[in-house]
Queue: 2 jobs
Job 1
Amino acid sequence: MTSEVKLDWSEPKKIELGDGKFESLPADKLQRQEYADFIADFLSKQGFEEASGDMKNYVLNLNAEWGSGKTYFLRRLSEDLKVHHPVVYLDAWKQDYSEDPLMTVVSSMISQLKSQARLTGVDENTFEAPKKLLGLLKAAAPSIVGAFVKRYGGFDPIELWENSETEDVPPKSTADAGSNEVDISATASQMVKELLRQHEDKSEAIESIKLNVENWVEAVVGLDTARDDYNRKYPAFVFIDELDRCRPSYAVEMLEVIKHIFDIAGVVFIVATDTAQLQHAVKAIYGEGFDARTYLSRFFNSRFTLKQPTIDSLIYAHCDCEKLSGQYIKQNRIVVWPECESYEHNISNINSVISCFGLPARTIIQITDRIIAILGHMKSGSKVDLLMLTALMSLREKNEDVYEAVISYKFGRSEWSDGNRVKLNRYLTQNYDFKNRNIMFNVDSNVPYDSPLDQSLTQYPDAVYKANLSHYMKDIFSIYLKSVEPDYNGSGGMGRHLSTNIPLKEKLAQKVCTYPANRNSHEDEDTSNAWLDFYHSLYKLEDVDITYYQNLIELASALEWDD
């Protein structure tokens, strides 16, 4: 990293938006600072060689999937670099309404650089975009047509041409809004001449734009040197964000057009995209068989891909995690099982379940947000199996047909599966990997067990226990949903191998007590599995009707968040 630039993303950062408005960027939750250090140092050296004074141009594609924090990354890095380099930040998606991507980029660059130069009373004509810039509009014909429509009283010569009965030549004349005859052939000729003139001027206009931008970059650096209160140096950084969210035509047009200004010496560009999504946009324009990856690569010198964060990190960064804490849940007077004091453990449990289904990051965040919304909506005194809720919501997103069969108790029956009677415990084991995933929960001897075995149960340590998710899915989830193949891969437990003449809770208490009670009991998986079964029955969660979960899920699934 260059000695002048020191990044510290461990704390929130307040940034000024203008007009007295501010925005607070949170602390770095996805450990992106090390990437920012590297990229800032790399691009600084690519754009400007301090020893020789040589300036170069460089274009980097910052590639990251949804949820990976690329917008946060660009906003935070651009703010930190503003005291060291001329910086321009452009949210392409917010400018999507524009019909001219080039003008959007150029105007943003000039206005932001002008602001950073801190000039007052300057003759703006010195740096105004040249008139020839008009020749670089996205589509020359519409602007020209507009002028002629205005000039000739409301008719569109191109539309007249398209609707003409003659295929190769326009009609000779028409009437304007005042019923005056207009010579259409002369108008068409003038339009052709205008298009040719603009084409001939395009190369010169591009050079004028580049010179205009170079002047403003030089102004920022030069005036800093003169004032001694800032020390901004080459290169200038231009950040272009959210291009993949734009409508396909706009995204492609922006890439096609701004390539004409990408080769400005002393200016480096960072174009942030979900490159896979941007490739889809390109194919939407040029056809499904088009080589979008090769096409996009010609715009960039290199591509830097941000590593996809862990599911836990995604949830921490995007969701209101405090509402999953034991304290918050107790304040709402509801029971969320398995009981966890810390929101970290509840997030870990959600992650353990949801990650088995291979869902994309966007869906994972939406499911977690919906779970939080459901818990906030639950009435005082109500209870819910968080693992059941998460698994059902994940299954609904993964395979809605299977979900519908499961909640209607039809899974594994011939009327649903055309004679294929595979039960849920076998189906889940064969299609999803639940092994080596822990379920965290607190065992608290202060909870009244109301069991003849109370004295024995209280010998176990109050601690965080770790049960196996595979055990839960086979011996609680599948049994609750009445679709179990007995003894398949160890299924059918829950204390049923003990006496059948006592209530289920007592059988499960007996099962716990078959394992030794000592200070390390919470680290033993079999003991933890037995405690998980016992607590499930202690709170009578097997008595909760499936329609309760179905209603919660259907209600929350109607709730969606914008990106």
Job 2
Amino acid sequence: MKLLEEWLRTPRGRFKALVALAAVLPVVEATIIAVLGFQAVRGLPPQVSAVWPYSTFQDLRWLFVYHRTIPGFFLTFVAISALRGVLTTVLANLAWPAAVPHPSWRWLLRRNIWVATLTAVILSPWVALSMAFATTGLSWYLIAYLLPLLLLAPFLLRAGLSADWWRGLPRLEVVGWAWLSFVILTVAGALLSAVPIWWGIPLAAVFGAVNALLWRKSVAAVLAPGRVRFRAVPVVPLVIALLLFSFPAMPLVAERLQGGRGGWRPPIMTEPLPDSVPYAVIALGGHDSEYDGEPAVDPRVERYSYLGLDEQKRPLPYTAVATHRSLGDSAAVLAEHVEALHERTNRPIALLGHSEGAMVARTYLERWPVTEVEAVLLFSPLVMPGRVYYPPAEIRRGWGVVAGWELRLLQALWNITDTSDEVPDQEFIRSLLADAPFYRNRTLCPVAGVRMVAFLPTVTAVEAPPGEYHRIPVYELPAFHGELVGRFDVADLVLDFLSGEPVQRSEMQYEVLQRLGSAWQPPPLALRINPVWSAGREADPAFTGRICEAR
């Protein structure tokens, strides 16, 4: 013991201990992941020994997904905050510069446990947003929780070392090291998700050692003497308040990223079909779309209505609220429309679905396997939605129960400016959660007798967890969610596909972006442990790394 104490008194000995501890922690997590065969979380282990606040961000994502009771959540929250405080105390102490006076262990321990708890509280709204991302697969949620994390990281990096961390702006060196850690963790996640799962163990050790270097440089940057700008200003409380009060504006940002709301009239509705197209076409709008009843230019094309058909079997006008119904109910309405249009035109039917409309079309194909539909175009379909779970509001026990309540609180803030009155328990969302095994596993799987293609925007690459996510032809293009369907260059591809020509293009950067996003996604909830899902026949892509497979 004396030898160890003497060894830790030397800068070289402390640095060796720092490297060893920072490397061992990711190795332990990577080993557990490899033993479980948990393919979807291979990119997470380096974060377990990362600098503030990234390690806490990883802890919270595991906790928000894997808890079943409200008391259990808070007990675990306290336990992991205390454990994280102890770990950061040891890591910070080992990384402490020799030339800087060292505080007592007791002060550092108390401070880090308190800061670990405070950091977890501060980050929890954005961890809840990561649950919304994993529920819907929409990339704007990913942007909405990573940007605040990056903004807060330089401030929280100072918290465990300085009593005045909440005042003034961090120096550029601190900002640089905080953001460099984010970049390295992103690259680490990409590499770990690209190699075979057992190779991830030594690779996790390598990036754990890199974390040790980042700890040393970050602690030195925080403790370095220098002028702090705006020292008298409580910058951190102001930033947190600004971020929280920005929640009501997020639906407006989402509106832009998702291609806007309201009237949806893609080119197929405004241009006549060429004679080479043998189909009658039903165009399905996405979430919060609206329809004023105006027919398409070509009589062979009709707009799908979430409210169904009128007495003349024509689609009814609808408002955004109509799109909030469950996917099963919407698919039943589509079945009536398919039958009516086929009887009227005596043609096979093609479906063109956008976002939620694509999910309605895919649900219809699953539940009505004998159909007049012979071609389907899926624009910006939700990729592997339902990766997490939270029970309905009236149920007080179940996986993700506290996360569900925090989402409801956040949604109440958003609805200050959001006229569509979204709620986390909306029928559409609940249908994604209830049938998650199907949507995770088979959304982009082939259907016998139906020609299919999916048009995927660039953001789909970061929405999908590591592993296979499509087995039908895809056409990949740079765009945000919802932008492709309205582009006239894509309209030509739609007509080519409807005329019988193959349409397919894969971009190399998609796989790269998919790997880079893997470090910041929440861990999926295993299908077999959730009673709501466990009776299903679907295999779990989170463990197999493949889709379209049964158990």
